[in-house]
Amino acid sequence: MHILIVDDDPMICKVAKFILTDAGYSVSTAATIQAAWSIVQEQDPELVILDVRMPDGSGFEFCERLRQDTYKMPVIFLTGRGEISTKLYGLELGADDYIVKPFEPAELLARVRAVLRRFKASGALAPRTNLKAGNLELNTSELKVTLPGKKTVDLTPTEMKILHCLMENAGHVVSRDSLVDNIWAWDHDGARSEIAVYISRLRKKIEKSPSSPEYIQVVRGIGYRFKAR
Predict the structure, then answer these.
(1) How does pLDDT run across 70-91, given as a tens digit for each residue?
(2) Where along the chain do the CATH 1.10.10.10 domains lie?
(3) What is the rounded distance in angstroms from the CA atom of residue 69 to the CA atom of residue 36?
(4) Distance from C-alpha of 165 to C-alpha of 161, rounded to nearest angstrom
(5) Where in the chain is the domain with CATH 3.40.50.2300?
(6) Binning pLDDT at 50, 70 and 90, where does residue 142 land?
């Protein structure tokens, strides 16, 4: 399992690489966005651990470019910027987790393992590759959802797991706790607020009017319901 660490702080790279290598992972490091992009294109790592502030660009822009170029590997931001607005912005761009420096070695390893478990499981959530609810069709193996008019939208693994859970229970309320249990291998602070971020991202992708959703409806105080039209 190959992990790419993108950080211009040599000590962070050294410590994180030691932790992950000791756990059995193959690790590459990059001190610039340009170097990171070369490694992604040449080696296609299974996970990217990414700082926000880089000498030749922004980690946010790098994450966004990965998603625009349809790279599906999970991304974990590892940064000193702990503001909630910054964290939510990273998740909006397609990151799968967000760790604030300084970090505990055990936390880094646990987050990496949890994200990789979710990613591996994302293509095998159900015996059916395609799941239909109303006039939407979800392809779990390709991380795509087909909308009315045959428009196809790409999803991140986490988005796909949330939408799968909602569509599989179409017409029924799914609690926030149930969504957390389906997405994260272990609960963590802020998990429920992160659900709201992913719901917002899904609405922007599948709803004609995200502010007046037809499919993903909130049930106040409980969770969400997928309304099959």
Answers:
(1) 788 899 999 888 788 888 888 8
(2) 130-226
(3) 15
(4) 6
(5) 2-120
(6) confident
CATH code at 2-120: 3.40.50.2300
Compute the distance between CA of residue 197 and CA of residue 192 in angstroms, rounded to an integer. 9
The token pair at 138 is 């979800």
Separation of CA 219 from chain center: 24
Least confident residue range of 78-82, 104-108, 183-187: 183-187
Q: Is it true that the peptide bond before 157 is cis, omega within 30 degrees of 0?
A: no
226 and 202 Cβ atoms separated by less than 8 Å? no
Residues 6+ away with beta carbon under 8 Å from 50? 6, 7, 36, 59, 62, 63, 75, 76, 77, 78, 95
- Over residues 16-73, the pLDDT tens digits come to 999 999 998 999 999 999 999 999 988 889 999 999 999 999 999 999 888 887 788 8
- Is the domain 130-226 a CATH 1.10.10.10 member? yes
Give dist(CA 37, CA 41) in Å, integer.
6
